[in-house]
Amino acid sequence: MRGITYIILLCLTFALASCTYIYGDKGVIQNRDTDYLKAQSIPPLQIPPGLSSSTIEAHYPVSERDYPGSHQKISLIPPGLAPAGKK
């Protein structure tokens, strides 16, 4: 019985140590929520000499057209949850 208790404690110790390794400050999984604040600007891409931009095409072109109703304010509240009198 004592041997089983020792093995269980040893397994729990390794489990806790591995969690610290995985989620710690220098571990495998890190909280990188604010890394974008450290981003730096880089110069725009340049077309190498000898190549032309005529082969570059937009796969998903966006038209410059102004669609009617596109400037209306849209509510994000689902219709069934809107307070009475508001839509």
- Helix fraction bin: 25-40%
Sum up the overall morphology in one term: flat
- Averaging pLDDT over every residue, what do you get? 77
Helix-and-strand structural type: mainly alpha
Total helical segments: 1
Low-confidence stretches: none
The termini sit apart by 68 Å
Quick one: how many beta strands? 0
Largest pleated sheet? none
| Integer-rounded radius of gyration | 29 Å
Write the element-wise H/E pattern from the N-terminal end onward: H
Strand content: under 5%
Short description:
With 87 residues, the protein is mainly α.
Provide the fold topology.
Layout: H1 2-23
Structural summary, described in words:
By secondary structure, the protein is mainly alpha-helical. It has a domain at 1-26. The chain contains one helix and no strands. It has one helix at 2-23. The model has no long low-confidence stretch (mean pLDDT 77).
Key terms for this structure?
87 residues, 0% strand, mainly alpha, flat, single chain, 25% helix
